Amino acid sequence: MSTESHRAPTTTLLSSERLRIEPLRIEHTEQVMSDLQDPAIYRYLPGDPPSPQALHRRHAAWVVGHSPDGGELWLNWVAFLGDTMLPIGTAQATLPRQGPGMFAYTIFPPYWRQGYAKEMTRSVLDHLFKTHKLFKTHKSTELRAEIDTRNIGSIRVVESLGLARVALTRDADFFKGTSSDEFTYAISRDDWLAQN
């Protein structure tokens, strides 16, 4: 596959029963900045709340849609409640030329435990497995998520979506004064399509 064909990333507008899941744009930076300042989001993550400048730089890199060398697609979304401009979270997928893709999501704390994480993630995974050209070309490709073993909420979300735990990495990271172990969860395109 040429670099040019791998780069093509116009991220698709998605929707679910309660959410409008927009492709990331630079204008979203201001809309999500205050939500991303909540320290509860970073309890099981090595980072801290970003500064406005850092978030703008991050989003500017992501909206390009691919890594600098063109070897990975970077797909990012911001989820809004219904037809409002109220953001409730973000989702992202990193899709390499070969091998498993990775996905991650963030739900802002006021919207925890209301089913939004599962709803948003289901829409993203369904789009990737059913319509994204990379998965139509490489049908055996799978998607993975790496989750801190203490993050029970996220573990429940991915398990409810049918992902299987395939690995445990001890001491995957060290942050906030303690070591972090990580589970890797995965699901193949065939398994996803069989259950959705």
Calculate the terminal CA-CA distance, rounded to whole Å: 29 Å
Structural class: alpha+beta
Shape field? globular
Strand content: 25-35%
Whole-number total of structural domains:
1
Rounded to an integer in angstroms, the radius of gyration calculated over CA atoms is 16 Å
CATH architecture designation: 3-Layer(aba) Sandwich
**CATH-assigned fold name:** Aminopeptidase
Please identify which CATH superfamily we are dealing with: Gcn5-related N-acetyltransferase (GNAT)
Question: What do these coordinates show?
Answer:
With 196 residues, this protein is an alpha+beta fold. It has one domain: Gcn5-related N-acetyltransferase (GNAT) (Aminopeptidase, 3-Layer(aba) Sandwich), CATH 3.40.630. Helices cover 30% and strands 33% of the residues. The chain has an 8-stranded mixed β-sheet with strand order 1-2-3-4-5-6-8-7. A hairpin with a 3-residue loop joins strand 1 and strand 2 (19-23). Residues 1-9 have low confidence and may be disordered.
